């Protein structure tokens, strides 16, 4: 058996093991890699930066724990950015396991806001984030398309009360906030076809400024909506999250994982090259 | 991190390792975790659905608010369950027909607008030649990108035009369309690889948090159970690896 034949019959478990070893080594090697920022992520950041204090940002936390690796860092970065900029955060979870995700982010970001921080050279004093004043969590309802349409008429139709049972009419932040007309920006963080519903039933119907935070698997499919102006920005996968953290100067789990990404990709590219060389050389040998 | 949180986190790490053990081969640890995941997901969904939808949107409306009109969707929902009976399954077609009719009525105009019309307009956009120079040069929504979108859309459509043989100039454009599609699939593949690696990175980060917590004596809730749980899991993984290695060597010897 030649070297090329061995390449072609290499047990895939050796590849898994090698990749795992590379990931662990690069994770514990605490070096930094540069993170270039794309225009589609920068436009999301710039949009939030441009909003006047007190504006309402709608954050759709429409993902389950299976996608938290990519989408949780985005949610953390955007939510903290909104709170530091003193924007109101209105949130709903249209995925059945989303409420758990949303509550975890609120708990951690509210804790983080209790500390003074400096981001991009700007000092942000400590702030107590108050439920109902600084943020509202509407909770989960099934049939996301109908919920998106319903919220366009009035948030009180699908959500008469918030996730904790407080009627929306008695929540200070919701005074005068009826539908998307009072929302300055919608950012949906999603791992499924809820993104399609937000585009078709939300943005196209009510014509609001919208961006998507997507898992890597989905990201490429949504670039046409960026080109058509239906979306103002896209954050794709862990790289998108890392770019947002870079812009917000708030390093988190995404930036921490990017050096692993780089080396894992190099390993995969190396194996693709090896497999192709093996394949073509074996074919040439068979031809001879 | 208190003891209860630590034990749940430790259980989470055990489940993570159990799931990854499938990469070697199917085994009882993986099977247990898979079944646990399916069961917990289903149970969680039922409870969430009850508290967030059925109770506030149907039962409370009828029982507390006495809005009797809500009996109509309630009965329509119950009619769906007749599908379980061969004799009465036809009844479920009525609410299903209403549901499909409403969904189609809502979806068709909005989907047509969002996915067809707006995309067509975007493909027909005026190419701004000013964007070829200066900062808009490689912008994803201007400059050369406009040309790529236009040429790519036309070539891609021509590739799927099967009423004329793909020969000559027409064939060359179809070939370009094929290349454009391949580049699109390649991009999706690249993003997918990133997504899969991200999942693994997240698990490494989670394991690292757990490892640090196991030996953090400064933690006010620190207990000897913390490092014991760490070494317990480590021992379990090592024992599994050794057993599998011995099996592998025996199989290899018998094959030789």
Outline of this structure?
With 288 residues, chain A is α/β, with parallel strands linked by helices.
Can you describe this structure?
The complex is a heterodimer of chains A (288) and B (256). Chain A is of the alpha/beta class and 288 residues long. Chain A has one domain: Rossmann fold, CATH 3.40.50. Chain A is built from eleven helices and eight strands. In chain A, strands 5-2-1-6-7-8 form a six-stranded parallel sheet, sandwiched between helices. The radius of gyration of chain A is 22 Å and the shape is elongated. With 256 residues, chain B is mainly α. Chain B has a domain of 99 residues. Chain B contains seven helices and no strands. In chain B, helix 1 packs antiparallel against helix 6, helix 5 crosses helix 6 and helix 6 crosses helix 7. The mean pLDDT of chain B is 88. Classes of the chains: A alpha/beta (288), B mainly alpha (256).
